Amino acid sequence: MNITLWETIKPFFEILILWIVYYRIFVFFEGTRSLQVLTGIIYIIGAFLISQLLGFDRLTWLLTKLFGLSILAILILFQQELRHGLARLGQQHLFNVGLEENEIIDVIERVTNAVFKMSAAGIGCIIAIERETKLKTFIESGLELDAKVSSEILTTIFTPPSPMHDGGVVIRADRILASACLFPLSDNPTFSKIIGTRHRAALGLSENTDAVIILVSEETSHVSIALNGKFTRIETKEKLIETLKNILVKPNGKKKK
Known about the structure:
- It is a single chain.
- The chain is of the alpha+beta class.
- The chain has two domains: 3-91, no CATH class; 101-248, DNA integrity scanning protein, DisA, N-terminal domain (YojJ-like (1), CATH 3.40.1700.
- Helix content is 54%, strand content 15%.
- It contains nine helices and seven strands; from the N terminus they run αααααβαβαββαβββα.
- The chain has a seven-stranded mixed β-sheet, sandwiched between helices.
- The chain is elongated and about 75 Å long.
- 26% of the residues are buried.
């Protein structure tokens, strides 16, 4: 490549790389308390640059020390969020092939029918729908199936004494990839003492990935969704379909990331 041409376009590549890095950092901290601290650090960096431009040597020295302490504070105080963020970051892919809107809705309706059929029968279940973060690690912990999503298969999997009813199911696109999968238990102190193992597993997976997890409580038959470390109670089939559409379908009909 011509050296002059490379020198001309090199700054654009550098800007692109920096933009991607900054974007990934914000995605990394999104939904955590650390995002507020990160915003504060950005303000410190801005003040540092301004003080350098204006020649404020003492202020520059002070801000340099403060910046170092801020990084140390993040590592100590927010180690749990950093661990979860690293797990999510390491599993994400840049490209994801999605389904068309009608195919997504078909999957949603099949899952919804199975969930409320099990709820009516008092059968507990936990179903994880993969989004952008790949769930390969959790798939490998279970029994691989690779079957088309259907209400009958999901109900059969979770109906005792099926050997696959313990653990969770992972769905990617319109395929059931695995059952009896082990999901990470949440150590969130707000919930750990008041919810059962199935709920802790759903919450833990939602804290570590962007998957949407649907679960039925075996004790109460209540239907819930876990997403981004939060639970949402679902009362009706219509509400579950609407909620999943809002999460999984973009306005233009493509799959949401």
